[in-house]
Fold these 2 entries.
Entry 1:
Amino acid sequence: MNLQTPLPNYINNVWQKSVAAERLDVTNPATGEILNYVPLSPGDEVHQAAAAAAAALDEWRRTPPIQRVQYLFKLKNLLEENLDDIAQTITLECGKTLDEAKGEMRRAIENVEVACGIPTLMQGTNLEDIATGIDEFMIRQPVGVCAVIAPFNFPGMITFWFLPYAIACGNTYIVKPSEKVPLTMQKVFQLLEQTGLPKGIVNLVNGGRETVDAILEHPDIRAVSFVGATATAKAIYAKAAANGKRVQCQGGAKNPLIVLPDAEPQFTVNATAESAFGCAGQRCLAASLALTVGSARDWFTQAIADTATDRVVGNGLAEGVEMGPVITPESKTRIEGFIHAGAEEGAQILVDGRHPSIPGGENGNFIRPTVLNGLEPQGQIAKTEIFGPVLGLIHVETIDEAIALINSGSYGNMACLFTGSGASARKFRYEAQIGNIGINIGVAAPMAFFPFSGWKDSFFGDLHGQSWDAVDFFTQKKVVVERWA
Ligand code: NAD
């Protein structure tokens, strides 16, 4: 599947060139090569997409759910057939390894599979005889036109936390991908087109801030899903709510792992490295802090340093590469600044990933895995999202101290515990003020049939992405009280 240049929008089932005055380069982060150009679509193109989606709504809503999901069954098959091609595109524009890109699309497909169950998931409830001869029903109806504003780090998967559920529930949809990685959605929309979905059900509008503002202001767009940095999430949540929209915003993270002395050493070190350095640390579920308790420090510290040093870094398309570049030169500079700041706050740079020599990667945004030992727990770096392959080590004496430290943080996306003790696991699961918990798991990513449950500054809203939360988000409940003489 080839892509047009510059990238078109997809509105009312027509690929159309944007009239945008401004466009940005889409760059391969491993090589610096320009791959394409993305338009910063003006608000008018959002209005066109919203008009198409609004016009399609009535007929789509009246299409029986069992017929609506037939398009998703087709989409699932098309995604399977084109998985390698889409994964290649993800690696090209985002930098992660091909295996990571394939894993991302596997998670996307799982959401399509779960949404195929909408004829069951969307059912309401009822009770006969709420009073003598009177029955009451709760039925679910679609919300209307909905939209997603997506981040750069999972160009394929994140839209799928929302879109399949939205359209299966009878809504129509607009996708605004990250302007840094717009190529993957071009491919996904080519497949959506092949499913034969009627006009206006799914629309794609590329762009940046102005495009987002138009989504947040448009009166016909009833619900907005956002995933991205916490500062953006807060602003979008406030603006969408002020405009009367249903809104869910998933934000940033600073994810800690606790390592207890009774954890299995090699397994724990490997899982930590995969969590901290997988996807070059650009996962919202990447471990950023390892809190070693008591004697765990003795076996963990050198082992994680060795594992970080050994990780193979390079172009994600190359065989054997375990970690790709970060997304932009600005990200690389920002991450290097955080490493410097961590050292200024007193940490020892146990493994320094700055200024690596990567054969063929001279123009790429490469940083090797970095380990900061003895990070100041109350310092800025222990509290700031780095979003790069940097793991800070903090040493404490008790699990209570570790949990208190975790609960003092402002984010609540993920925390994990490595232990051989069921009692410690239960205590942690019970007391941690965090929405996604891992026990002897390094990346506690909820499967499609569970909600993605960030807390605190990692989430603004009530209903999360995926599974039954998505069904609640994309339906409005109607109650009917009925008596027949
Ligand atoms: P970002 O907030 O910079 O951008 C996300 C989206 O918002 C993009 O589509 C962008 O065009 C738009 N945007 C950015 N600034 C805007 C503004 N001022 N006004 C209107 N729209 C704006 O995020 P990013 O850098 O693309 O993604 C990385 C962030 O996403 C990290 O913080 C990461 O933790 C977070 N993330 C969170 C989750 C989660 O589930 N909680 C998942 C993935 C990523």
Entry 2:
Amino acid sequence: MLKLEDIHKFYGKGKEKKVEALKGINLEVEKGEIFGVVGFSGAGKSTLIRCVNLLERPTSGKVLINGVDLLTLSPKALRAQRKKIGMIFQQYNMLESKTIFHNVSIPLILEGRPKQEIKEKVEQLLDFVGLKDRIDHYPNQLSGGQKQRVGIARALATDPDILLCDEATSALDPNTTEAVLDLLRKVRDEFGLTILMITHEMNVIRDVCDKMAVIENGVIVEQGPVIDVFTEPKTEIARSFVQTVLNDNLPNSVKKLISDSNQVSNIYRIIFKGASTGAPLLSTTAKQFAVDLNVIHGLITELQGIPFGNLVVQFSGDQQEIQRAVQFISEQEAVIREVSDNAI
Ligand code: ADP
């Protein structure tokens, strides 16, 4: 559906001034998927999303939509393709002096659609985002969340296939963020849209995305299904993003237990996902091997409807038997690693 191939983007001219904001980005988003790109400020997120609709022209690479490279299109063909790509922004980009009706109708007016058709379409879109009663209001009469709903209605006006979300919830409080994310999910479910979003907030990725990528210094350092990155982050930066929402820091009492214990403390972190969360893995292990298991800290939650657990367990018993038990768990649908004093 949407594929970025080896995208490079340089800003500035001359050797000294050149900034390489994107350094060979490869990314693929399937139809109907919600794909989130997370990164710190300056990582290249805005540049990346703006390269998809050529608001920024990549210096090299391919922007493929259904196999067609936008960079090869004539201006006319590009204009037609761009109608298929909607976009919403952190700051909403509303015309403050125009009504909500007018703001949503702008893309349709630009297309020269008949007045009656515009009226019907705008009413239908505002109804979809739950703001039909605000049709004659002005942007400054709306809350941030309502403005973003208007932004979504406007982005949908041209019946796009792809929706780009540029930090769409970053200016909103947590409850409003949740409501806007629910609406984006509804947009995907009802219109079958493909959604690419950039954010610095990992809770947004957790709550709405199917797949994700982590960008750092213009490079995608990690990508995959959200559940995989959350359960097994491979890079330090991904791990730190995951920690911002799944606080798996150990309480001081547990840290003390680890640092006070002898060389071998036999404390392990076990990460379960999917079916294994429901399976009685710990009791099976305790029955099968001569070990006692003591859960000293833990979290069990759900990610994208998939159960997910992160438990810290102390093993006691014969050292060889503990090793066999650990080996057994590692062969199940779970990740297990020892928690030592310097890797808490
Ligand atoms: P993010 O959205 O993750 O904060 P950006 O894509 O805005 O990152 O920026 C990536 C890098 O490109 C930064 O080093 C930034 O300073 C630089 N940059 C962004 N836009 C421009 C521009 N118009 N001219 C020069 N450098 C830019």
